[in-house]
Amino acid sequence: MPHEIPAPHGGYLRAWRLAPGATAYLLLEFVVAMIALTVLSTVFFTGVGTFVLVIGVPLMVGALLLARRFGQLERSIATWAGREPIAEPEWPLPQPQAHALTRLLQPLRSGHYWSYLTHQMLVGPIVATVTFSIAVTWWATALGGLSYGLWQGFLPDPEPQADWPGWLISHLPPLTGWSGRVLQVAIFSVTGVLFAVTLPWVISGLTAVQHGLARLMLGRWPSDDLSAVARQEAAGRQSAVHAEDTAMRKLERDLHDGPQQRLIRLQLDLAAAERRAASGETEEAAEYARQARAQAQAALEELRALSRGVAPPLLTDRGLRLALEALAEQSTVPVSVTVDPGLDDAVPSEVARALYFVVAELLTNLTKHSGATQAELVAQVHADEPARVRLSVVDNGHGGASFTAGHGLSGLRERVSGLLGTLTIESPDGGPTRVDVTVPVSADGAIG
Q1: How many structural domains is the chain composed of?
Q2: Residues 422 and 303 in one domain
Q3: Statement to judge: residues 214 and 233 lie in one domain
Q4: Which of 4, 102, 240, 447 has the most neighbouring CB atoms within 10 Å?
């Protein structure tokens, strides 16, 4: 387990207990900084010196990539040592369709790469050298001063002016019965006590400086969060477009294979009944009429089933809560429903339509594939930040549900992703199966 390095204002005994781990952190940072300085200086300045040659630019890019690796190592050391983790920056993503030269030069256009290189070649080595030197000095003075009385007998007699204790002794007024050796032991002991008392605070402050500068230069910038949100929204829009396209294709295919074929059959049966009736064959005409009626009824049922994937009048007129309850009532598997009373106020209409479609598809899959005898639908609104709606469908079927490319659950996950939400499945073999859908919404019902 990593040793947590205390903040400067932490308890004194706790700071003392954790001072060795903090010192180890400073030692590792110093070693990494020296290695990084040596390697990166060699590679980068070789690239600068050969810039006019073909090899210069790749060497500079290689130095930037190495600086990123050294920075990641430093962030890992900070996490191992118990410091607050340093968040990963938003690195530029490679564009497969871009030219090879454009992809090669991409790190040269990234501020994070240059920040990492500056830290590893300049700021990091300076800070690591200063903090480690002070830490070693404080430890050596504290331990050496406190133990000086034990090993000073092995040293030659002190000579005035030879070191600072000798100089101090030579300028002190004579003390009766106090030899130079005794005074030197006393001076070293008092110094050791002072350095030992202040050591945990000094070590803690040094680690705070070391970690703070690393977080400033190796961590995320405010612009990274904006970039992440923009990329997430772009991915969500793409997923929504793809999911909508998939849904429309499925609807088109279902209409072609279902109601359209039945309506064609209905047309043929009516034509046949008309011919039989005109020729006086009433029994045959009645039979064709009965078949036509059955085809019309079947087409109507299929159209009703397909309409569940499109916003029904009940959803538009009465809201998502009653629409979900109606879906549960229409299911051939008994479904108990628990819906938050504030659901309709929290969910905007475009999100409600998508959630209705998701639940309709989940209940259809449950009926066709789960082998369940009962299920539960729960819809809850969580008003914390960020506000979100969570839908859960749980059944007692045989389990084994999973995401398969091009199939229903994967399409539903894309549809939910288009709302910047998540869809997860827990479906061990033997059941039960649990599907959770979480979609963020703002307090006024807009997508968050």
Answers
A1: 3
A2: no
A3: no
A4: 240
Band the pLDDT of 244: cuts 50, 70, 90.
Answer: low
Distance (Å, whole) CA 328 – CA 360: 9
pTM: 0.53
Helix (H, G, I), strand (E, B) or coil at 5: coil
Place of tokens 């504030």: 342
Cα(147)–Cα(391) distance, rounded to whole angstroms?
Answer: 67
pLDDT in tens, 338-377: 998 888 888 887 788 888 888 888 888 888 888 888 899 9
DSSP assignments along 79-130, one per residue: HHTTSPPPPPP-PPPP-TTS-HHHHHHGGGG-HHHHHHHHIIIIIHHHHHHH
Which strand ranges, in their side-by-side order, compose the sheet holding 433-440? 335-339, 375-382, 388-395, 433-440, 422-426
pLDDT of residue 411: 76
Q: Do residues 234 and 213 both lie within one domain?
A: no
End-to-end CA distance of the chain: 38
CB 356 within 8 A of CB 391: no
Q: Mutual orientation of helices 12-49 and 56-80 as an angle, nearest 10°?
A: 170
Based on the fold, state whether residues 272 and 358 are members of the same structural domain.
no
Q: Is the domain of 303 the same as that of 319?
A: no
> What whole-number distance in Å separates Cα of residue 201 and Cα of residue 211?
15
User: Rounded to whole angstroms, what are the CA distances from 233 to 96, 417, 424?
Assistant: 21, 9, 20
Exposure of 360 by Cβ count < 10 A (0-12 exposed, 13-18 middle, 19+ buried)? buried
Pairing between β-strand 375-382 and β-strand 388-395 as defined by DSSP bridges: antiparallel
- My answer on whether 126 and 261 are in the same domain is no
